[in-house]
Design a protein that fits this description.
globular; alpha/beta; binds NADP nicotinamide-adenine-dinucleotide phosphate
């Protein structure tokens, strides 16, 4: 039976470290979260980030532009936040309203305030092996592996998904730790051929139940990190059939309670890092 990799515990450890570092500061680091939607689950999610920030003694402002905002108002707001010396980190919460060009807005976030690694420059620097903020979810995967002392060098990491937010950056972060990385995506023929060879399996496809016990090789003790955050019958699920996979894997993150809480803590830690560099 797989060991459960508890994201909540990892997040608590990060937040405890943050609180200690924050206690020595004169002012609070500030994160600005820009919304342009009326999507209720997005609103609930950003309120949770704000609550977590406040719990650690940081500020998080939600700037709610609403679903009817136009491109100029959207980009003007990002430009204003970019210039505001009181704001240390900026994130644009997706999804944004239809018709808004998010890449233009992302490109306006200065890399030093780009605490969720959304700017194209941050992505390019990460891919080039240069210092940059990586997307917080990709960092969260690495943080869980590190917290549980899971060796990466020379091991085979299989990533399902190649998105800008998770699949690509997590593949680059795993490579930077000397793992051998295979990336699967929707056109991969028979992902189980690859997943059964995995020492580490990162599932980030956004498909409930995609990874079943047939994808796990029982002799490999595979460490499964389930990034998926999907909803089925009103219940949050990951990309793995948790019960089936748990029987054969070496370790697994639950959903909820795995990557999600760690991602939020990383966003705050990145905001503190940004603040310290800006002082
Ligand atoms: P995305 O942009 O939709 O990308 C999904 C990726 O999975 C794509 O590369 C896609 O391949 C691949 N894929 C889809 N179906 C597949 C299949 N049947 N077999 C193999 N690959 C398949 O999604 P995302 O933004 O990366 O998010 C992925 C999941 O992570 C979602 O459930 C999302 O909610 C979750 N998420 C979690 C957190 C967190 O903090 N826990 C944060 C962000 C997102 P193609 O490129 O070929 O289309």
């Amino acid at each position: 039976m797989a060991e459960i990799l508890d994201g909540r515990k990892v997040a608590e450890r990060i937040k405890a470290g943050l609180e200690e570092r924050l206690s020595g500061l004169q002012t609070s680091p500030k994160l600005a979260i820009v919304l342009a939607t009326d999507n209720q689950s997005t609103l609930a999610y950003v309120r949770m980030i704000r609550k977590t920030a406040e719990g650690t003694g940081m500020e998080a402002d939600i700037i709610d532009l609403g679903p009817n905002t136009d491109q100029n108002a959207f980009t003007d707001k990002i430009k204003a936040l970019a210039e505001d010396s009181e704001v240390n980190g900026i994130i644009i919460q997706t999804p944004v309203a239809d018709g808004l060009e998010i890449d233009e807005a992302r490109s306006l976030i200065p890399p030093g305030k780009d605490v969720d690694g959304a700017n194209q420059l941050s992505a390019g620097r990460l891919a080039s092996g240069l210092p940059a903020f990586a997307p917080a979810t990709a960092q969260a995967v690495m943080e869980i592996l590190e917290n549980y002392d899971i060796p990466l060098s020379g091991r085979h990491a299989v990533v399902i998904g190649r998105s800008r937010v998770i699949g690509k950056p997590v593949s680059q972060l795993l490579l930077s730790k000397d793992a051998t990385v295979t990336v699967c995506h929707s056109r991969t023929v028979d992902i189980s051929l690859f997943t059964r060879q995995a020492d580490i399996l990162v599932a980030a496809a956004g498909k409930t139940g995609l990874v079943t016990k047939e994808h796990i090789n029982p002799v490999k003790n595979t460490v499964v990190i389930d990034v998926g955050t999907n909803f089925k019958d009103g219940k949050m699920t990951g990309d793995t059939d948790f019960e089936g996979v748990r029987d054969l894997a070496g370790a697994i993150t639950p959903v909820p309670g795995g990557v999600g809480p760690v991602t939020n803590a990383i966003l705050l830690r990145n905001t503190l890092e940004a603040y310290l560099k800006q002082k």
